[in-house]
């Protein structure tokens, strides 16, 4: 659980970096592709060099051949691509705190569905009324957090993107956990996820170039702006290792505390939109929703 909370703090920091990079170059997808490429280079150098990495990649290939691992289990990186693209596009306008509250709502819904359908390695989890109520309360928290900004043009549309990104990242955690269980190591699963995210973002970026022409902005020289990809390595590896033990919804909710605390701290201490009273109220509602959804349901009788 402590690892999941730390991963949530990492997600908040990743959102700030990708949002800053996207604002600098004026292209959220290109910013996400740049940071993902940085992480991909590190993984390509690291995973094949580790004995556990080589064994894990061989186990993934064997699982795909035998049918124990389905091809779509390896598509968790698509959810990661949606998540980092959402960071690059919307964080600059929404702020990290509002973005994170919306991510929380999407993650709660996505985690609930993933556990119900058994997407993760731990199989199906019973959907209790408390969990459903907590997920719905998270959605209400988003409405509260952005209630004082709905009059700003484009804000409502921007909030939909992190909601979808939250569903995507919960699905990614489930699928990466299944790949990690097959590989018996989180690092091969992380490499697979990054590879799929890289291809997805590259395809979207090329479509954008075909539709709107080549970008005119250059990538900024500051190396720290690309650290989001390195943070993503740690977050995805943590999810691949932990989600099989605690389930998708519990992992998502445990990381919520880290995301919210990190997001509020960064919005309060760095340049950008400051958290308003509505954001603080929405955050408080989200914590209450997390506590409600984390309650275990009553087990059915024999």
Largest β-sheet summary:
none
Class per helix and strand makeup: mainly alpha
H-E string: HHHHHHHHHHH
Oligomeric nature of the chains: single chain
* Spatial gap, N to C terminus: 30 Å
Approximately what portion of the residues adopt beta-strand conformation?
Answer: under 5%
Helix content: over 70%
Q: What shape does the CA trace take?
A: globular
Write down the overall mean pLDDT.
78
State the total count of DSSP E strands.
0
Provide a count of the helices. 11
Low-pLDDT stretches are: 298-302
Cα-based radius of gyration, to the nearest Å: 19 Å
Query: What is the total domain count?
Result: 1
What does this protein look like?
With 302 residues, the protein is mostly helical. It has one domain. It has eleven helices and no strands. The protein is globular. The two termini are 30 Å apart. Pfam families: DMT_YdcZ.
Summarize the structure.
The chain is mainly alpha-helical and 302 residues long.
């Amino acid at each position: 659980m402590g690892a999941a909370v730390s991963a949530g703090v990492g997600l908040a920091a990743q959102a700030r970096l990708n949002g800053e990079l996207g604002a600098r170059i004026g292209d959220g997808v290109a910013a996400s592709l740049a940071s993902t490429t940085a992480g991909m280079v590190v993984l390509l150098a690291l995973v094949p060099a580790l004995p556990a990495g080589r064994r894990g990649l061989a186990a993934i290939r064997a699982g795909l051949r035998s049918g124990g691992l389905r091809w779509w289990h390896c598509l968790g990186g698509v959810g990661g691509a949606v998540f980092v693209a959402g960071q690059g596009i919307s964080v600059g306008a929404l702020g990290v705190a509002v973005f994170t509250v919306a991510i929380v709502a999407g993650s709660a819904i996505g985690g609930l569905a993933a556990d119900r359908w058994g997407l993760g390695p731990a199989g199906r989890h019973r959907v209790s009324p408390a969990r459903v109520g907590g997920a719905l309360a998270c959605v209400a928290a988003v409405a509260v957090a952005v209630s004082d900004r709905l009059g700003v043009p484009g804000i409502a549309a921007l909030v939909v993107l992190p909601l979808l990104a939250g569903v995507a990242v919960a699905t990614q955690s489930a699928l990466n956990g299944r790949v990690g269980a097959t590989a018996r190591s989180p690092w091969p699963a992380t490499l697979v996820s990054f590879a799929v995210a890289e291809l997805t973002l590259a395809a979207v970026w090329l479509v954008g170039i075909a539709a709107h022409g080549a970008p005119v902005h250059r990538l900024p020289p500051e190396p720290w702006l690309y650290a989001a990809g390195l943070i993503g390595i740690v977050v995805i590896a943590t999810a691949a290792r932990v989600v099989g033990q605690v389930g998708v919804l519990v992992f998502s909710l445990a990381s919520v505390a880290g995301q919210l605390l990190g997001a509020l701290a960064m919005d309060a201490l760095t340049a950008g939109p400051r958290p308003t009273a509505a954001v603080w109220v929405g955050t408080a509602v989200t914590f209450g929703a997390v506590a409600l959804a984390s309650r275990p349901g009553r087990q059915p009788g024999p």
